[in-house]
């Protein structure tokens, strides 16, 4: 059992104009976890915002560091790698939350390693870490209807319909992260991979 903390990364873009967009759903789950554990994110020298807490009780509690890169999605690898180096965390102790076009809205899948599927945030992380061996929590946003360019679609806010289920979706995203840490990948996949 590793004594180094788990780093939970919410991918997204900085700035108010991106805050509530589909591309930032990973960061929305980070906010949900921060709220759940009553912690506030603050600036770290790695160009990330972070908050730390313990998951569990006593000596068996896991150290968790929530993080959001302050750089744009396609450059998030550098700050996250710097944060991992600061805490001596290997990529296998990193869980990355990101939007996923290829699964329906509100579906969640977790896995370790794999390709980046054209996702610039994952591409940047894999390049910075020199490996794809980190956990991913894939948060389904579905594909745009009709002719809309996926690049535009991800930078739009959730639809009125989707917003009705967004709270529950983010809550489940937070549950998946905590399950990965406390129960491992197999149990988490069998419980949550919808």
Automatic annotation (TrEMBL):
Q: Please provide the record's keywords in A-Z order.
A: Cytoplasm, Hydrolase, RNA-binding, tRNA-binding
Task: List the GO biological process terms.
Answer: protein quality control for misfolded or incompletely synthesized proteins; rescue of stalled ribosome
Q: Which gene encodes it?
A: pth
Q: Per the UniProt record, which EC number(s) apply here?
A: 3.1.1.29
Q: Which organism is it from?
A: Candidatus Planktophila lacus
Q: Which PANTHER family does its entry note? A: PEPTIDYL-TRNA HYDROLASE (PTHR17224)
Name of the molecule in the record: Peptidyl-tRNA hydrolase
Q: Which Pfam families match?
A: Pept_tRNA_hydro
* Localisation per UniProt entry: Cytoplasm
SUPFAM superfamilies from the UniProt entry: Peptidyl-tRNA hydrolase-like
Site positions per UniProt: Discriminates between blocked and unblocked aminoacyl-tRNA: 13
What GO cellular component entries does it have? cytoplasm
Assembly behavior: Monomer.
